[in-house]
Amino acid sequence: MARDRANINTNIYPPWDGVENLDVYRWTRDRELKRRKALESKMLTHKRPDGTPLYKLTSGSNLSRTDPLTSSRRSEVIERDKSCVWCGAGAPFEVDHIMRYVDGGSNDADNLQTLCEPCHRSKGGR
Hints:
By secondary structure, this protein is α+β, with helices and mostly antiparallel strands. It has two domains: 2-65, no CATH class; 71-123, no CATH class. It has helices at residues 2-12, 22-39, 71-81, 117-123; strands at 55-57, 63-65, 93-97, 112-116. It has a two-stranded antiparallel ribbon with strand order 1-2. A two-stranded antiparallel ribbon has the order 3-4. A hairpin with a 5-residue loop joins strand 1 (55-57) and strand 2. The longest helix has 18 residues, at 22-39. The radius of gyration is 20 Å and the shape is elongated.
């Protein structure tokens, strides 16, 4: 299995030339492979009706929302609901999009609800 992984890496990224520090080479290779994998993600193809993308690729090769949920909106929703809307449990809370962000759900308060961690995990959709 490790041999297969090594073959995949050398097919995508040039082999170590012995000149560059091996640790630097591995870090650069792993970063490039992560960037290429992120570019292949279907998340980057999701767009709003006006054509603007929902996700962007950060300099660290991570996917990030173009319109993240602000901490003030999060606090507003938690204050409004005061407990998990599914089971009534207390904190810790997570703010959930009723219509998923990736499906075009907005960050408006009407599309957000407060869930406890277990309820949010059981909802799935990731």
